[in-house]
Amino acid sequence: MSRYVVVIGGGPAGTAAAESALRHGATVTLIDSNEALGGQYNRRIPAAFGVRRPLSIGHGYAASERTARLLSGHPRCEYLSLAAVYQIERHPEGGCPAVRLLIGIEGDQREHRVVQGDALIIATGAYDRVCPFPGWDLPGVYTAGAAQTLAKTQRVLVGRTVLLSGTGPFLLPVAQSLAEGGARIPAILEANPGRRIVEQWTARPWELRHSANKAMELIEYAACGVRHRIPVRTSHAVVAVAGDGRVEEATVARLDENWTPIPGSHTTVPVDAVAVSHGFTPQHELAVAAGARLTADGFVQVGADQQTTAEYVWAAGEITGIGGSQVSAVEGAIAGTAAAGATANRALRARHRTAEQFVARLAAAHPLRPGVLTWSRPETVVCRCEGTTRGELAAAWSRSGGDSYRPAKLATRAGLGPCQGRMCAATIEALRERECADTSTATTTPGLAAATPAWRPLAAPIRLRELAELAELDNAATGPAEPPCVTPQRP
Questions:
Q1: What angle do CA 205, 209, 211 make, to 5 degrees?
Q2: What is the pLDDT of residues 69-105, one digit of tens each?
């Protein structure tokens, strides 16, 4: 008997999971919040724009197109685009969790759906993390992912002169997208030291033998950097920006191994935009709602076949560890095979072991170091939704003793805005631990957690009108549990 597999996420991990599950006889519902499959890696300019070369920026578009056609036209696959999963409901008597979603454009009339299968695969990916520094809330400061998305999908540059700063190889394709679009890139600033990066990537090279395509991409990015004269400077970062109403200059500092700026090393660079990425934050809310445990650094904990600690639930891609599109696809294939009730073959297992090595190497070569917390000042905004500054948080921790995040959250509203702490919660927790640490027992940590656990009853924006419609639909489906209570009137 074939299984019914529900996959959340239309990026490399989700599409690979769906394709693998179909190959092993399962029936699949693939839920994607975007208009077309591909995720961040394969975002492209809309066909309606009529561009002659719509796939000129990026990699893997041909393979992504073939997979998209296969999934959208497969008789056992239902593809739901523009579908926002707002809630995961655990089965009261065990069994696979139910997925509640809204289909359509936010603000329009959206269709309610409840999907429940025999297995659930969560592949919701990750997004750029940016740690606060003076001026980071000025217009002209972008996440690297946003800058790349605008270049890929709209052919819009975030600026004519764009400085890239952060850590990780993701900065390289972003620089390529901007440079090929016509922007001038004064430099790519990698916060981690070059020695650490080289040591991690060159040790035991045979363990990465299945990642040859990554080496080819690196060569292409290097050629682009040479062609456009883009220098890469390690142990450097943008630690402040300034300008009259928008970014006009960036302050660049040399960093020690802990990412603390070295006194006397600060210089200013005239720019009109800065693209920043201090690693990535896993989008793990749905996995937490499904009952999955997280690792100490905030990623979803999985076993050898990508199954989470929650029964009937698998996870793949960036929510289990940052590794890029190829690693995500391998993990998705493993998860799809296992969720369909099959066993991965030897070749796929070998690729999976290499993928795990790649994730570990990436984390070791490009960690987020605690010195980044020294960049902000008391007047620096930490929670952008509510405008909460570091000084206001410190005052709240001083009053409450800093025992937990919640008292400061209630006192300052930090993390209560539209993003619900997605952008600031991990940084606030790291700042709290630093501000309230017992210096006599504090130890130097190897890096900061990518995320803090976040369980949210509603994982996506939903209007009150839509909630009311949902209640009406539930009542119509089940009927009232008991007759309505009527208060007797006095004679």
A1: 105
A2: 888 889 999 999 999 999 999 987 778 999 999 999 8
For the record, the structure tokens of 367 come out as 């960690």
Query: How many Å apart are CA 452 and CA 299, to the nearest integer?
Result: 9
d(CA 413, CA 328): 35
Local confidence band at 438 (pLDDT 50, 70, 90 cut-offs): low
The answer to whether the Cα torsion of 175, 178, 182, 186 is positive or negative is negative
Strands 162-167 and 188-190: parallel
**CA distances in angstroms from 390 to 18, 66, 262, 428, 454, listed in the order given:** 44, 48, 22, 9, 21
Closest CA to 122 of 328, 288, 315: 315
Q: How far apart are CA 76 and CA 254, in angstroms?
A: 55
Residue 102: what are its φ and ψ, rounded to 5°? -120, 130
How far apart are the C-alpha atoms of 343 and 161, rounded to whole Å?
A: 51
Calpha distance 147→153 (Å, rounded): 10
Between the CA of residue 261 and those of 22, 171, 235, 266, what are the distances in Å? 51, 21, 9, 8
Starting at the earlier edge strand, list the strands of the sheet with 83-89.
Answer: 83-89, 98-103, 111-115
Longest dimension (CA), the chain: 92
Nearest to 18 by CA among 329, 267, 262: 329
Distance CA 491, CA 489 (A): 6
Q: 120 has which bridge partners?
A: 6, 313
CA nearest neighbour of 84 among 115, 61, 118: 115
List domains and CATH numbers for the chain: 4-127+281-344 (3.50.50.60), 130-278 (3.50.50.60), 376-435 (no CATH)
pLDDT digits 0-9 by tens, 164-200: 999 999 999 999 999 999 999 999 999 999 999 999 9
CA distance 261 to 198: 22
